[in-house]
Every structure is written in C-alpha cells, then in structure tokens.
Design a protein that fits this description.
Strand content: under 5%
Structural class: mainly alpha
Number of helices: 3
Organism: Mus musculus (Mouse)
Protein name: Suppression of tumorigenicity 14 (colon carcinoma)
Helix content: over 70%
Order of helices and strands: HHH
Number of domains: 1
Number of strands: 0
Length: 43
Amino acid sequence: MGSNRGRKAGGGSQDFGAGLKYNSRLEVCVAVVSWVVSVTETG
C-alpha cells in the first residue's frame, strides 16, 4: 500500500519509504499533504 502512494508521489519515493519506517503514518500523511500544498503553490 505504501508503495502505491510512493509511486504516485513520483520524485522522492525513497524519502517516502524512509518516512514510513521512521515516522508514524499520521506524520507521513501530514508530510505528504504539506508536499502537495507546496507543489500546488509553486506550480
């Protein structure tokens, strides 16, 4: 399941995998949301 989200993210899939191991799922979700927001603002 985590692999699917990592692939959707495209770049930074390694960071995503490390996040799953290092942080809790909630923190990872927050990080993904923050990343999406920053990409949206940039683009």
